[in-house]
Amino acid sequence: MSYNKSSGKPFEYASKISHRHLILDEEIQRYISECIIPFEGKDVELNPNLVHNINYPSNNKIENIIAVDGGYSTIAIKKKFPSSLITYFQFGSLLINRKDLEELKSKPFISPKDMAKLKELTPDKLVLPTKNLLLKNQSNFTYAVRKVIYDFFLNKNKEDTSLINTLGWLLFKNYASDKINTTCDCNYHKEKNNHLHICIKCSNKAYQLSKCPHCNEPNVLLEEKKINKVQYTWKCSNSLCDEEIFLTDVFRIFEAVDDDLGAVGVLGYILSAIENLLLVHIMRVIINEKPGFLNEFLLVKDGPLSFVGQTANMYKPMRAFLNYVSINNNLNLIGVEKSGAFVDHAKEISHKLNPGQVLLLSNEYIYKYILPVSGSMEYAKTSYYGGKIIYKSMEEKLYVLTLPVETYNYYAQPELRDLKNIEEILLNIDLLKCDIYQDAIIPIALVNKLISLSNYPSSDILKTFTKVKIPE
Fold first, then answer.
1. Is residue 279 part of a domain?
2. What confidence tens digit (pLDDT) does each residue in 381-404 have?
3. How many other C-beta atoms are found inside a 10 Å radius of the C-beta of residue 30?
4. CB-based contact 388:401 (threshold 8 Å)
């Protein structure tokens, strides 16, 4: 790095010949020669076994579309050392009636009243300490982050049921209402399935937490019968600890929070966890409303169907839940990606697909053309509960989508039948096309517009608001 001009002395320009040291270095030459970069679209060869024509159903049973999305903005309350950060989250669930969309298409213009039908949304809000910020009665920063997440789930009631109740319902598989023999007083769970331990005799259930957030005791069993059913907490089984464990600790966010460095690295994990739990909660409400009602809904998530980072292991109970639901219901659920490597690749190979075709993505294809990685590891095996496809609509819109899959090895040899209710879902994706943005769909474009926080003026306004409200 050269010296600057602020000293009043002559400016030092960078050397014009020192690059020769890099070019002549044998180690650098060897490294560069072994690098792999993705293929350009013109060089990609589509495997005909992965390309399928979609047979759209003549009868569209989906009547309503629900889109789920979230966003956040981090505010620097104090920039000087020691800096303090706070993050504001917003989450939205938007309900759209399919008939309203079809009526809009036949009109010469869309009135504000018509648009209002599509924009009835009240966002859920969350504020998270992100660095050097505590409440007066809190002992450390990690606890502050845990408590905020826990309080959000505990107090956020949807249809008279809290999100934390839905989290327990998902983890302990209470959606499968089997009769339980209560005469056994066991405390050891012999069967293990997706981190859920079940006693053979009494079906008592316990979720295995990686470690206690206080004393780091490993493999803590959170037994359903020992839960505080009002507060959704346990006491650590280590007698020397006996501290409180929150049900929301199963997301393992606390493992990536640092008392000194803060929680900047976990913001995306929190976003992913809450978006996915909102999906579960919505499905729970619809299922409880009346049998078969779920068949009339298409649920759309912004981003792939997955849990990310520290929350990744939650894909197991999510997959188990969706597989159970699909036994008696059409599972109309899809994730829509707006950016990233897969979206970039889809644009590169768009000309190779015909309208109404899907390209299934296999391990071999992904690691050869999209994410150059050596080895045969199953793509997204430890985080996704769905399988990716690239879809070219009848109007030549291009989408990267994720649909639920039952098996753990979808990407080894993907089949069209692996993807739940794909023909009817894609029929409705065509109906939801949006020309405002490139290859967008209406519900995601709307919900994102209604909950997203801009750098300007939103961030500036939130910064002023926060400084006014925080006492000196």
1. yes
2. 889 999 999 999 988 889 999 999
3. 9
4. yes
